[in-house]
Design a protein that fits this description.
The structure holds 2 protein chains of 2 kinds. Chain A is mainly beta. Chain A is built from 1 helix and 7 strands; from the N terminus they run βββββαββ. In chain A, a hairpin with a 5-residue loop joins strand 6 and strand 7 (about 100-115). Chain A starts with 13 loop residues before the first strand and ends with a strand. By secondary structure, chain B is of the alpha+beta class. Chain B has 5 helices and 10 strands; from the N terminus they run H-H-E-E-E-E-E-E-E-E-H-E-H-E-H. In chain B, strand 1 and strand 2 (about 65) form a beta hairpin. The radius of gyration of chain B is 22 Å and the shape is elongated. Classes of the chains: A mainly beta, B alpha+beta. The interface of A and B includes residues 26, 91, 97 and 98 of A.
Chain lengths: ~110, ~240
């Protein structure tokens, strides 16, 4: 731990705000609604020792232990989405029909160290 | 920048494929968004997904059927202009909906035909006019693959309605399933005639034209189709 800068709560693995605008990716002509949505993303450290707040697996806990012993040979666990939620999108398809479709795994609700 | 452009294009096509699209759509003549789809969209937006039971994620509550995709197909059929229109017949039209865009993995759980009339079609009059609507299913091909409106048709629906009605709904789930199963969709024939009277009181040609003017404002027909793609539903995935 002496080799790494101290991990503050703000550096811990957690969801960060990310607004995806469909016009930014050039899809505004065929997506009717929404024009964009809060998709979020995961970012942050998974330090040793992992706490319950970091939604870790048993494997991740062991990986941080090994990492603390061998920082060069074993990486820290990754900060990744562990709970996502769906959204519905209203759009024109390739035949100009109007479609309302339910899409899973579109919004990051929770992150964890895995 | 050329390499970056190619990468972006590849990423885009991968994502579009996962969204069920063959390419980026570019609507040429976009139809107005049906109000029913707006209503469902707004309701889902108001109800936060985390609070929703996962079992309901791939269910369309409004129609109480399983499904994660709701499409509204615009009618692509044409009016039929017969040289000798049958007496009392106001309108004869082919209805055709191209269901070929449904993917093989999707199972159709509901199909509902909506026939809409313009709000301006109602003229206040002392006598309430009754019309008869008949919906036929073309079941026979004639030369050059054109379905005949006259031969080999089966009556699906026969219903009387007054011009006060702005919208008529018909359950075509069974028919649409058969269109997909047999891979042969010949469409439907819609007829609207003056009803509610006997032959003796049938209007003259001039009278028929006047009466039919009320349904000339026939606006549009559309088919709402609900399908379920189990590959894209969490409940189905976890069961697997």
């Amino acid at each position: 731990s002496a080799q790494h800068p101290p991990v503050t709560p703000s550096n811990l693995c957690k969801p960060r705000r990310l607004y995806i605008s469909f016009s930014d990716v050039g899809w505004e002509n065929w997506i009717i609604a929404p024009q964009g949505y809060m998709a979020n993303y995961c970012l942050g450290e998974c330090p040793f020792p992992l706490t319950a707040e970091l939604n870790s697996t048993n494997h991740a806990i062991l990986q941080t232990m090994v990492h603390s012993l061998d920082p060069e040979g074993t990486p820290q666990p990754c900060c990744v989405p562990v709970r996502l939620s769906p959204i519905s999108i209203l759009y024109y398809d390739n035949n100009d029909n109007v479609v309302l479709r339910h899409y899973e795994d579109m919004v990051v609700d929770e992150c964890g160290c895995r | 920048s050329a390499v970056l452009g190619m990468e972006l294009s590849l990423q885009e096509s991968l994502l579009l494929k996962s969204l069920g699209l063959s390419a980026k759509p570019s609507p040429k003549s976009p139809i107005p968004v049906p109000s029913v789809l707006w209503r469902i969209f707004q309701k889902r937006k108001m109800l936060p997904a985390p609070n929703k039971d996962p079992a309901d994620a791939c269910r369309v509550e409004e129609f109480n059927v399983p499904g994660n995709i709701i499409r509204v197909f615009a009618d692509q059929g044409h009016f039929i202009h017969s040289t000798q229109p049958p007496r009392l017949l106001c309108l004869q039209k082919r209805l055709y909906f191209n269901l070929s865009v449904l993917e093989e993995d999707e199972s159709l759980t509901m199909a509902q035909l909506e026939v809409k009339f313009s709000h301006n079609s109602y003229h206040a009059s002392s006598q309430r006019q009754v019309f008869e609507l008949r919906l036929y299913r073309s079941s026979q091909m004639v030369l050059r693959g054109v379905p005949s409106p006259e031969r080999g048709r089966k009556l699906l629906v026969g219903q009387s309605f007054a011009q006060l009605h702005q919208s008529l709904l018909f359950n075509l789930t069974g028919v649409a399933k058969e269109w997909r199963t047999h891979g042969r969709n010949l469409g439907l024939i819609l007829e609207i005639s003056v009803g509610g009277g006997d032959a003796a009181s049938a209007p003259t040609s001039e009278g028929l034209r006047n009466v039919c003017a009320n349904v000339d404002a026939f606006l549009a027909a559309s088919l709402l189709v609900v399908t379920l793609n189990p590959q894209q539903c969490g409940a189905a995935r976890s069961r697997r």
